[in-house]
Design goal:
The chain is an all-alpha fold. Helices cover about 70% and strands about 0% of the residues. The protein has one domain (about 5-90, about 115-260). The protein contains 10 helices and 2 strands. Helix 1 packs antiparallel against helix 3, helix 1 runs antiparallel to helix 5 and helix 5 crosses helix 9 (about 215-240).
């Protein structure tokens, strides 16, 4: 419970963290599935995609370490963690089955798989939702005024990097063929998985903290959820329209320049503090 003033904020963020070690490896694998083609057709985008995949791998590695604390404190989250893992195993299996093609010379074998277009669409849609989360948190930084600095820095570092690489997954998806309907469908899947898993994990932690019947807790979570949905839906709709590009989205002011202070010697950013 790293936010004592508004513990529900910590619970909601923790619930999102639980999903990251499952969602982000799928996103990374999807983007990497396009690298062979990109290296030939667009080396600059291929380099951006490599850097993006490295950032995402760092994200889910750090979330996995953080989640060890969550699972130790809330043992009932383990079942949700297993369900989330199963969801993304199914998505990877589905993507692998669809991206592989039969070899004409050897009908019983598969040729090397091409880009996973649904996975790339999922990655692009997932990054759109993450970007909205960064803007929402940027507007509500005051909620973090008494948060434990290490954990607050951890979450905000992740969101700042989502802003930094907001265009890459989308551009990789477009380079692989794109398609607005596939993008919209994959983004809807990402939103449903994120919302459902976060809601269940939040309820488990509320119960463990004795706040499941707290009207204040539910009012705060409802207010924040509605605010986020009202912020996310227009962006999701616009992002699925022809001609849209993530560069058209305005970056959050507070997070935009935080990474400018990266210390190259230690690869760390300064601890977060209210401006």
């Amino acid at each position: 419970m790293w936010s004592t003033h508004v513990p529900e904020l910590a619970i909601a963020a923790n619930a999102v963290s639980l999903l990251m070690p499952h969602a982000e490896p799928y996103v990374v694998a999807s983007v990497r599935s396009a690298l062979d083609d990109l290296t030939t057709t667009d080396p600059e985008l291929a380099a951006d995609a490599q850097a993006y995949a490295a950032q995402e791998a760092q994200h889910h590695g750090q979330h996995r370490a953080f989640n060890e604390f969550l699972l130790a404190r809330y043992p009932r989250l383990a079942r949700i963690d297993r369900i989330e893992a199963s969801i993304f195993r199914r998505l990877r299996a589905r993507s692998g089955a669809r991206s592989g093609t039969r070899s004409a010379a050897h009908p019983g074998s598969r040729a090397p798989a091409g880009p996973d277009r649904f996975g790339l669409a999922f990655a692009a849609g997932f990054e759109t939702i993450a970007f909205v989360a960064a803007r929402w948190v940027d507007r509500h930084q005051r909620l973090l005024h008494d948060a434990e600095p290490t954990v607050a820095t951890f979450f905000l570092w992740h969101l700042a990097e989502e802003v930094e690489h907001k265009e890459v997954a989308y551009e990789v998806y477009e380079a692989a063929g794109g398609g607005r309907l596939r993008y919209a469908a994959a983004m809807a899947v990402a939103a449903v998985v994120l919302a459902a898993s976060s809601m269940v994990a939040t309820l488990v932690m509320l119960a463990a903290e004795g706040r499941l019947l707290s009207p204040v807790a539910h009012w705060r979570l409802l207010r924040w959820s509605l605010g986020f949905v009202l912020a996310a839906l227009p962006v999701m709709v616009v992002s699925a329209l022809p001609g849209h590009h993530p560069r058209d989205l305005a970056d959050p002011v507070g997070l935009e320049h935080w990474l400018d202070h990266l210390d190259p010697a230690t690869s760390t950013v300064p601890p977060w503090a209210l401006p």
